[in-house]
Amino acid sequence: MVGCMLGTSMAMRAALPVAAQATFVDLDGAYLLSDDRPEPLHYQDGQIDIDKNRVK
């Protein structure tokens, strides 16, 4: 399991490579923030939308 209680999108993004190998993932800490970092992660239907989060 990979998870967090609360953190910015920067922390959640760093956990994505580990989360890809996990059975259970709870990385919605950034979703709970009222003001996240610029270029935040995008959540849709309970999942992190990877296509909208590609670094350009």
Characterise this structure.
It is a single chain. With 56 residues, the protein is an alpha+beta fold. The protein has one domain (2-53). It contains one helix and four strands. It has one helix spanning 9-19; strands spanning 2-3, 25-26, 43-44, 47-48. A two-stranded parallel sheet has the order 1-2. It has a two-stranded antiparallel sheet with strand order 3-4. It is globular. It starts with a strand and ends in an 8-residue tail after the last strand. The mean pLDDT is 86.
Question: By helix and strand content, what is the structural category?
Answer: alpha+beta
Strand share of the residues?
5-15%
Total individual domains: 1
Radius of gyration, Cα only, in angstroms? 11 Å
Which of globular, elongated, flat, extended, rod-shaped describes the shape? globular
Q: Mean pLDDT across all residues, rounded?
A: 86
* Helix content percent band: 10-25%
Distance between the termini: 29 Å
What is the structure about, briefly put?
The protein is an alpha+beta fold.
